[in-house]
């Protein structure tokens, strides 16, 4: 459950990311494909070269969706409802969301260094778990 | 047996050479206890773990973090023989400490984030891939003697 403090911290982190969302998205996906090659199986139709247009475009989408979730922390289920349908009925990315979350956090840590405090780390980890749970809600 | 390419060994060595075992170890363990508070159950005798500030400042956490990461250094010196290197530690974590091996994976992921925060852009995707492989293999070796 996201506490009031968690929500504040998540919003703070998001403000730091605001200016470079596209880069963050692209880097997250690049790292995910490099570190967890099995995630590439969900993108057979993509050019998966480092920093490709498709990775950049998809990264932008992912970060925009996360940004929307950040704006609606009190109602993640509703905010992510359409995406939840898409992931559950069409995409069914099993096990990927957790790996994406790890890579997203690594990118945040790379960009923020010491400013990515343990408290922020905990809040973002909870947030990403909550998002993954909502997206997987309708799997079965 | 896990195979390590020359490039992977280089990426491991170049990062490890610049790591302060004491600082990174303390930070990684503190973050484990903060981000995944259920792990505190393994450290009943560590005293005050009541808040992130208390955990970060706790001398037992710092000392144990250093111990854990020093042991990690042994893994790096014995990449070709991890299961043997961690045989006794694996038995200890199973039989005496009763730690679910899933927690090794969590600590590994946290260590990656600590390294990323410390090294910034130098912690490239290739670095991350190699180090995630390393922490995964270490976690596996630590779980090997479980029964």
From TrEMBL, chain A:
GO biological process, any: hydrogen peroxide catabolic process
What SUPFAM superfamilies does the database record attribute to this sequence? Globin-like (SSF46458)
List the keywords (alphabetical).
Heme, Iron, Metal-binding, Oxygen transport, Transport
Q: Indicate whether DNA-binding appears among the record's keywords.
A: no
Any one GO CC term of the record: hemoglobin complex
Q: Does the keyword Transport apply?
A: yes
The record's subunit annotation is: Heterotetramer of two alpha-D chains and two beta chains.
Protein family per UniProt: Belongs to the globin family.
Q: What is this protein called?
A: HBAD protein
TrEMBL record, chain B:
Q: Which organism is it from?
A: Sapayoa aenigma (broad-billed sapayoa)
Any one GO cellular component localisation term in the record: hemoglobin complex
Task: Give the record's keywords alphabetically.
Answer: Heme, Iron, Metal-binding, Oxygen transport, Transport
Gene Ontology MF, one: oxygen binding
Q: State the name under which the record lists this protein.
A: Hemoglobin subunit beta
Which superkingdom, per the lineage?
Eukaryota
Q: How does it assemble?
A: Heterotetramer of two alpha chains and two beta chains.
Which InterPro entries does the entry mention? Globin (IPR000971), Globin-like_sf (IPR009050), Globin/Proto (IPR012292), Hemoglobin_b (IPR002337), Hemoglobin_oxygen_transport (IPR050056)
- Tell me if Iron is a UniProt keyword of this record: yes
* One Gene Ontology biological process: hydrogen peroxide catabolic process
All copies of the Globin domain together span: 3-147
Function recorded in the entry: Involved in oxygen transport from the lung to the various peripheral tissues.
What family is this? Belongs to the globin family.
């Amino acid at each position: 459950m996201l506490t009031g403090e968690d929500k504040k911290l998540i919003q703070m982190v998001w403000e730091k990311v605001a200016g470079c969302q596209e880069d963050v998205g692209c880097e997250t996906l690049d790292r995910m494909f490099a570190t967890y090659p099995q995630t590439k199986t969900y993108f057979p139709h993509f050019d998966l070269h480092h920093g490709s247009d498709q990775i950049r475009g998809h990264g932008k989408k992912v970060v925009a969706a996360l940004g929307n979730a950040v704006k609606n922390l009190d109602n993640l289920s509703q905010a992510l409802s359409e995406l939840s349908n898409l992931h559950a009925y069409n995409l069914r990315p099993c096990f990927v969301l957790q790996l994406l979350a790890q890579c997203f956090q690594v990118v945040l840590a790379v960009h923020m260094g010491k400013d990515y405090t343990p408290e922020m780390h905990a809040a973002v980890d909870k947030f990403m778990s909550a998002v993954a749970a909502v997206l997987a809600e309708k799997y079965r | 047996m896990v195979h390590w390419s020359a490039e992977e060994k280089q990426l491991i060595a170049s990062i490890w050479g610049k790591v302060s075992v004491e600082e990174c170890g303390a930070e990684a363990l503190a973050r484990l206890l903060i981000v995944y508070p259920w792990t505190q159950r393994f450290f009943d005798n560590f005293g005050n773990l009541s808040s992130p500030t208390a955990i970060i400042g706790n001398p037992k956490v710092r000392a144990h973090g250093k111990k854990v990461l020093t042991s990690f250094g042994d893994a790096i010196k014995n990449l070709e023989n991890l299961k043997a290197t961690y045989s006794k530690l694996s038995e200890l974590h199973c039989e005496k400490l009763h730690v679910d091996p899933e927690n090794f994976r969590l600590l590994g992921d946290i260590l990656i984030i600590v390294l990323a925060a410390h090294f910034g852009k130098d912690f490239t995707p290739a670095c991350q891939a190699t180090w995630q492989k390393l922490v995964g293999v270490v976690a596996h070796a630590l779980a090997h003697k479980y029964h």
